[in-house]
């Protein structure tokens, strides 16, 4: 039983990270219909900025996380302005190729500066809480708490503020949004900024219990795509719940089935769910 | 108020509007009559800034707005209630209406006042205000669309076939509201195929065919015009 609860905790940790990354991906998809393959690279850059600020500059963990969020938000907006915006009238394949271009570019830049070695961010909270047989590392609790707080904040922002509503409006009816005077550029920049910040925060939360290296975004990105396909492209609750499903499946599958194959589980689940419900779990779109 | 001079619009190489010159004066209710595919929606979208004109000039109160973004037109007081409504279907009626007032978002008091007026004009929307707009009936959705446009506090309200697909009784209600909005001081440009009902509440009308304006006149002239009666009223 303790083992099981321990794995649930691990699942929640993974699920909240995946959820944050998938949220950004789904928001961008919802308004631009671009599958942003560069999103994993933004996640990776977030981890490196956090690493740089904490290890090389010696800053506090939270300051480093805020810096990562700010830098990656800016970088994400630049991608939109310099790459996706000029391609807005081009066929969709151009966006996809460009996104892969950004991905390769960012990885190359990071590798040029930091090399391909694995790096570590020191765990700022090393305490381990014990509840009976359960061990609860503080960093994991921080990840779960932080991720859910952020999702809650994003939910309130999107549902309760006029600027947040413009993002949903743009996703639900683009022309309708134009006709009430919503500016497409503003919404696109805001969405990319939010997506970038979420990815960077996810990376900064996760990095202390993981490794930092140039290709670290690949698997996360693939899983985030699995999640938003599962959850329904553009669906916000779909991204959160899909993230948790994949997180739990991976933690439990990795423990009870085979840890070697834990990264395959997400994809097996994708095939299974899509063969039962081909449109994804949440098909109503952004709500 | 609104003036077009020699406006052309194209879809790729297809010229959908050809030398449109027209004007709408403050306080008027002007009807744009045209059959399917005549170019009514294209004309509205060109005025609204969703499409850029290929030639010509559009002015609002003497100010050149040719080629400006839709948000600039809304800010200038030109608001379109589009064909097919283009609501935000997953959002509540209330959020749809509030988003209609997006350009006035900093003026909360004014926005609430307009909202009250809109809900008073369409009491059914008050009842349904928390329901997703997409779950309403066609007629109710049309009211949300008109209400949303009114939330932008238009000086010129452009209505693109608001009666399309509605039951006759509902059509009558919609036209009554349109007449009321005009009587309360909003200038209106109304695109319709439902010529008789539209002309009854109009001051003037234009007829558009294949992207060109072919006829114009005041209500009596149009109602009495043999060609108009034949083509659009069927009598
Ligand atoms: N997106 C588009 N691409 C290419 N051609 C278009 C497009 N939209 C409209 N057209 C063409 O432009 C012409 C004018 O269309 P428009 O929609 O403006 O007519 P309308 O008067 O609004 O018709 P309806 O009464 O059916 O709404 C038509 O010939 C139509 O086929
Ligand atoms: Mg039309």
From TrEMBL, chain A:
<feature type="transmembrane region" description="Helical">
    <location>
        <begin position="136"/>
        <end position="158"/>
    </location>
</feature>
<dbReference type="InterPro" id="IPR001851">
    <property type="entry name" value="ABC_transp_permease"/>
</dbReference>
<dbReference type="Pfam" id="PF02653">
    <property type="entry name" value="BPD_transp_2"/>
</dbReference>
<keyword id="KW-0812">Transmembrane</keyword>
<protein>
    <submittedName>
        <fullName>ABC transporter permease</fullName>
    </submittedName>
</protein>
<keyword id="KW-1003">Cell membrane</keyword>
<feature type="transmembrane region" description="Helical">
    <location>
        <begin position="12"/>
        <end position="32"/>
    </location>
</feature>
<comment type="similarity">
    <text>Belongs to the binding-protein-dependent transport system permease family. LivHM subfamily.</text>
</comment>
<keyword id="KW-0029">Amino-acid transport</keyword>
<feature type="transmembrane region" description="Helical">
    <location>
        <begin position="61"/>
        <end position="84"/>
    </location>
</feature>
<dbReference type="GO" id="GO:0006865">
    <property type="term" value="P:amino acid transport"/>
</dbReference>
<keyword id="KW-0813">Transport</keyword>
<feature type="transmembrane region" description="Helical">
    <location>
        <begin position="96"/>
        <end position="116"/>
    </location>
</feature>
<feature type="transmembrane region" description="Helical">
    <location>
        <begin position="187"/>
        <end position="209"/>
    </location>
</feature>
<dbReference type="GO" id="GO:0022857">
    <property type="term" value="F:transmembrane transporter activity"/>
</dbReference>
<dbReference type="InterPro" id="IPR052157">
    <property type="entry name" value="BCAA_transport_permease"/>
</dbReference>
<feature type="transmembrane region" description="Helical">
    <location>
        <begin position="264"/>
        <end position="283"/>
    </location>
</feature>
<keyword id="KW-0472">Membrane</keyword>
<keyword id="KW-1133">Transmembrane helix</keyword>
<dbReference type="GO" id="GO:0005886">
    <property type="term" value="C:plasma membrane"/>
</dbReference>
Automatic annotation (TrEMBL), chain B:
<dbReference type="GO" id="GO:0016887">
    <property type="term" value="F:ATP hydrolysis activity"/>
</dbReference>
<dbReference type="GO" id="GO:0015658">
    <property type="term" value="F:branched-chain amino acid transmembrane transporter activity"/>
</dbReference>
<dbReference type="InterPro" id="IPR017871">
    <property type="entry name" value="ABC_transporter-like_CS"/>
</dbReference>
<feature type="domain" description="ABC transporter">
    <location>
        <begin position="2"/>
        <end position="235"/>
    </location>
</feature>
<dbReference type="InterPro" id="IPR052156">
    <property type="entry name" value="BCAA_Transport_ATP-bd_LivF"/>
</dbReference>
<dbReference type="GO" id="GO:0005524">
    <property type="term" value="F:ATP binding"/>
</dbReference>
<dbReference type="InterPro" id="IPR027417">
    <property type="entry name" value="P-loop_NTPase"/>
</dbReference>
<comment type="similarity">
    <text>Belongs to the ABC transporter superfamily.</text>
</comment>
<dbReference type="Pfam" id="PF00005">
    <property type="entry name" value="ABC_tran"/>
</dbReference>
<keyword id="KW-0547">Nucleotide-binding</keyword>
<keyword id="KW-0029">Amino-acid transport</keyword>
<dbReference type="InterPro" id="IPR003439">
    <property type="entry name" value="ABC_transporter-like_ATP-bd"/>
</dbReference>
<keyword id="KW-0067">ATP-binding</keyword>
<dbReference type="GO" id="GO:0015807">
    <property type="term" value="P:L-amino acid transport"/>
</dbReference>
<protein>
    <submittedName>
        <fullName>Amino acid ABC transporter ATPase</fullName>
    </submittedName>
</protein>
<keyword id="KW-0813">Transport</keyword>
<dbReference type="InterPro" id="IPR003593">
    <property type="entry name" value="AAA+_ATPase"/>
</dbReference>
